[in-house]
Amino acid sequence: MMKKGVRILALEDSPFSKKGGKALIIGLVGRDNIVEGMLSFGVDVDGSDSTEMILRSLRRSRFLKQVRVIALNGITLAGLNIIDVRRLSDELGVEIVAITRKKPHARLLSVAIGKRGLDVKGKRAMLKSLWSGIELKRTQGYYVQYLAGVEEPSDELVRISAGMLRLAHIIASGIGRGESSGRV
Fold it and tell me: Hey, what CATH topology would domain 7-177 get?
């Protein structure tokens, strides 16, 4: 059972150009619906550096020993920059939850990778490896992905994580566009 008041890092990308470049990533750290800090860093649009940049940013921060959960809006950032959630969990000793409103589909991600002409072989292999070790549940209007073999995230953890992701989305969108828009 996850301890009450656990610190969560919620990560969200800002709007970005599909033509490439960098996307700003905003990470909010908080617990019990109280934001205690923020991280920011960039990742390559449709690149392969999201996992490394999350690790580097968190390791350099004062929050490293406090964060117990990383909340994501899906398993990609900046388009098709796939996050190796298993590596994050293993190296940081944290729980990972990916929360989306729409049901995630590995096949659709694989098709998108092919259409974009990205490192098709490498990205598809990573996606296949990740997908085989991820569980999916539906709760509170969200689809929640979490690593197989770990405790299923509680509804309270999902609710708090979704709220923090929403706030991270508002901040990232506001910085990227000059005004927030959309919803997580």
Answer: archaeoglobus fulgidus dsm 4304 fold (3.30.2170)
